[in-house]
């Protein structure tokens, strides 16, 4: 066979191939690791808002949130791809002032502590000249708010950020004006989370030149007090109130506070509230002719009641009027609007009552039968006729109506003129009997059913016995199928509770007295453990824990016990560690060590019962308790092991 020679150039080609393959594999590993690292980075622009409009020459706050498994080193902010700032500390933000109108794409790049990067989704904004944005009042027809008036703070002007308002960070918690950045409460009724430097504007129309009271409904929580408000016609260079300190209300309630009385020229103006500090929320403000109040006349068709407006231009409603034939519904203005405790009153006015047809309820009670109601409704207008048809259950027949109608007519037609309560009564020719269930402690009386049987009470319970069944006086079992033909008493039949006793004994035996499959509750059982050859009893575990042997346990539940033994280390007779004498003896035995200084001893009967134990040094005298004659097992425990000897007491 011809062999092909491998040249240097061929070797080089193969090496290049493997190096390239290895490099590509490494590149795949690094690419995968890079992808995993990038996945752990979460970055998002939080301001400005997507598709928002801004004014050229005004600062725009750009902020972002960023997290990563390894931590964030910095966030780079970019406008149209050009980096404008890098921020290394959360919260990550910067400001940027556009100098030209146009459309801009804003992004941010989060760099983690392992230098991996991830770019946020872009936010596109539009920058225009201030003159291009139309500012209008937030009213149905965008016309100015007419004074006097109560204006909700969340009804700031249309026009957007830098035009109708300025807000540092969008935290709008509601669905109301959700496209705006102003922080509105979840229920959409208050401006909250106020920050230093924010402002809101409202286009108003002053009907005539004069003095006007300004009141603000707010909740202020800062202590000590800080200046919260400056109020102005900002475009006209008129400041009505500067650095106003609001009364601290605490965090539980709002209050309506007078800010001041100011002279205002007739015409349309833009009113700005400059918000100077955090720690307060605002609900609404009131602008009213200085000292002016208005009267509301409530006309119920019989008489009138006059109420005067409060500081917030609302009134307290009078008590709801009554009418014997009608039910009060609400108050209504001359143009058909509902008038309630939240209606803003800006002129003297009269409101009239709106009545509803009086309605009543019809409540039917029926036992041992049903009642069909026609028509069946939750309530009925006055003088409605309703037909009631009673149908008896099996074994029953209709007897009469009682309650707000009494009689035997069936079907029955009643005219509803008030709330009615009517009961259908049924009777039966069947005789019912009482069964008394006696469990030896308590009795329960049960009435028989129409078929002569009765429902059994709950099974009685005793600590030492198990319930078996109910039994008649003649010894018959009584159950839910027994037909009763007279009043009677039945008694509970009990069986004494029994339990099992399980004894585990590896490396020895346990004598059980008495030995049975089951034991009645509170039976006393004696257990005697005897170790197998080479083992000695140590202790009990399980439902009894201890070292006594024998033991007597009282059976009060299913019980499981384990006898535990330990290995006896034998000592060669030729290396005996002790002398025991005399043996036999009269019950007094001497123990002397032949090796070592300290030892312990245990004396057992042949059945394994511990008779005596103790510790000694060099020698001791053992007195057999009660000097009972017989054979005993003596264990001498030393460092060398356990020496076991038999001694005889005569």
TrEMBL record:
One of its GO terms (molecular function) is carbohydrate binding. Residues 149-288 form the CBM6 domain. Pfam families: Big_7, CBM_35_2, Flg_new, Flg_new_2, Por_Secre_tail. InterPro entries: Bacterial_rp_domain (IPR044060), CBM35 (IPR041342), CBM6 (IPR005084), Galactose-bd-like_sf (IPR008979), Ig-like_fold (IPR013783), InlB-like_B-rpt (IPR013378), Listeria/Bacterioides_rpt_sf (IPR042229), Secre_tail (IPR026444). It comes from the Bacteria. It is found in: Cell envelope. One of its GO terms (cellular component) is cell envelope. NCBIfam families: Por_Secre_tail. This is CBM6 domain-containing protein. It comes from Flammeovirga pacifica. The lineage of its organism: Bacteria, Pseudomonadati, Bacteroidota, Cytophagia, Cytophagales.
